[in-house]
């Protein structure tokens, strides 16, 4: 079975600081990778996803993530965060076989101070 | 707007008193999922419906049941809630479940269940 590990449970940054949230997965085969975001009081929504091709994927709101196969990692980055990026961020994977369901990490709560 | 709707947003029940949570979708998606998310933990899949085909996760307790009377609606029934069942319950949908797991899931806002 697959598992997902997110390195930090809480991150506090000032506006304009750069962001990198770590995500590592464990699975013996090929995976699809996702980052979801949950803004305060709102539902989980997809930020970006990687299936194949260019390992650097760009998502909404200036976020990007890089898949490094050798490290089993899919870290989320943003060069300059804004107060509105305050949210909880979840990394998730699905094995690329038949039908498969999402396995989430525990999430990272990001607080951006103005 | 097309969306996933969950009612109620907050539900309080008593220990052992059956409770039903509701999810509806206007996306006309084939697959509907129920997740349980406890505080500071990852969302955990309980089960999903692919059309009318029910798929239970191996470690989902028997206390949790689900119904999908039509494409748009799906219900989560907790037959005898315990204190440990207090959590956020998330409903999600996807167009399909095949394609090697590439279908995006769309989530509702969740129902926070409190058990007294």
Task: Name a few traits of the molecule.
heterodimer, A: mainly beta, six-stranded mixed beta sheet, four-stranded antiparallel beta sheet, B: mainly beta, seven-stranded mixed beta sheet, 11 strands, about 0% helix
Notes on the structure:
The complex is a heterodimer of chains A (114) and B (116). With 114 residues, chain A is mainly beta. Helices cover 0% and strands 54% of the residues of chain A. Chain A has strands spanning 3-6, 10-14, 19-21, 23-26, 31-38, 45-50, 56-58, 64-68, 73-78, 87-95, 103-104, 108-113. The termini of chain B are far apart. The chains are: A mainly beta (114), B mainly beta (116).
Topology:
The complex is a heterodimer of chains A (114) and B (116).
Chain A: E1 3-6, E2 10-14, E3 19-21, E4 23-26, E5 31-38, E6 45-50, E7 56-58, E8 64-68, E9 73-78, E10 87-95, E11 103-104, E12 108-113
Parallel strand pairs in A: 2-12
Antiparallel strand pairs in A: 1-4, 3-9, 5-6, 5-10, 7-8, 8-9, 10-11, 10-12
Chain B: E1 4-7, E2 10-13, E3 19-25, E4 31-37, E5 44-50, E6 53-56, E7 64-67, E8 73-78, E9 87-94, E10 106-107, E11 111-115
Parallel strand pairs in B: 2-11
Antiparallel strand pairs in B: 1-3, 3-8, 4-5, 4-9, 5-6, 7-8, 9-10, 9-11
